[in-house]
Design brief:
The chain has about 260 residues and is α/β, with parallel strands linked by helices. The chain has eleven helices and ten strands. The radius of gyration is 19 Å and the shape is globular. The relative contact order is 0.11. It binds acetoacetyl-coenzyme A. Acetoacetyl-coenzyme A binds next to α2, β6 and α4.
């Protein structure tokens, strides 16, 4: 994969995608969003990649949507820009494979929104989070008003968005925005260790669990339970279920094959 603003690496079955526009603190412009969209399609379709880590090069994860590009947009162009970002982030959220955000620095505006469409967020002690849009005379446009409220509750989301306050990693942990805070130089090792732990489980089951949680959170509990019931049933059509339960009963480690 050859991109101008992204770096892609593999570590076994782990894909590591890094936003690489450090001079602009990895700000998301139309080109970066377009590359991200293509990269996600390739990663989702690559059978050798079972889990994805998203991070940023340099001192930022992503410092937001590109303010220089947005400054001259008219309303129609801004709506299209939001549509692009919303579409890419939704694609990440709905990937079958789990996605971990390794937040290495500023995660502001579109950067906080990018981290929130990932399944799990690990932050370095240097990470900073915020939705500073109202300070620029706009509102979040890549689903910040939606995912932040769902993750940390409406009251905290409104306070963060109305004040534009930047919070550090420990505060982000305290309010439930991130799963874990680690020293900067351990961030990628921690993210990879977490990825490997998830990879040691049945990956079809992990994917079904992701779908069930995501879809269930977006509907009423009856429908959510019906989704869980059907996916639970579907697990029993997989070789992984036979292997997982067989291994338990035979007192050995399972050898999952994603089948
Ligand atoms: N867009 C475009 N360029 C950006 C940027 C952004 N979001 N964030 C940083 N940059 C650029 C700066 O303009 C600067 O470029 P030059 O060297 O060419 O001047 C470079 O990155 C380094 O930034 P600073 O000199 O500002 O670095 P700093 O350490 O003094 O400050 C910062 C760091 C606090 C993150 C500051 O850069 C900042 O406040 N950035 C903007 C954050 C922001 O408001 N993000 C939200 C954008 S709106 C949005 O995202 C809408 C949406 O939901 C879709």
């Amino acid at each position: 994969m050859d991109f101008e603003n992204l770096i892609f690496k593999r570590e076994g079955n782990i894909g590591i995608l890094s936003i690489n526009r450090p001079k602009a603190l990895n700000a998301l412009n139309t080109q970066v969003l377009c590359e991200l969209d293509k990269a996600i399609d390739m990663i989702e379709n690559d059978e050798d990649i079972h889990i994805l880590i998203i991070t940023g090069e340099g001192r930022a994860f992503v410092a937001g949507a590109d303010i220089a590009e947005m400054k001259e947009m008219n309303s129609k162009e801004a709506r299209q820009f939001a549509k692009n970002g919303l579409g890419v982030f939704r694609k990440i959220e709905l990937m079958e494979k789990p996605v971990i955000a390794a937040v290495n620095g500023f995660a502001l505006g579109g950067g906080c929104e990018l981290s929130m469409c990932c399944d799990i967020r690990i932050a370095s002690e240097k990470a900073k989070f915020g939705q500073p849009e109202v300070g620029l005379g706009i509102i979040p446009g890549f689903a910040g008003t939606q995912r932040l409220a769902r993750l940390v509750g409406m009251g905290r989301a409104k306070e963060l968005i109305f004040t534009s306050d930047m919070i550090d990693a420990n505060e982000a942990y305290r309010i439930g925005l991130v799963n874990k805070v680690v020293p900067q130089d351990e961030l990628m090792n921690e993210a990879i260790a977490l990825a490997n732990k998830i990879l040691s489980k049945g990956q079809i089951a992990v994917r079904f669990a992701k779908t069930s949680i995501n879809r269930g959170m977006e509907t009423d509990i009856e429908t959510g339970m019906a989704i869980e019931r059907d996916l639970f049933g579907l697990c029993f059509a997989t070789e992984d279920q036979k292997e997982g339960m067989g291994a338990f009963l035979e007192k050995r480690s399972p050898n999952y094959k994603l089948r």
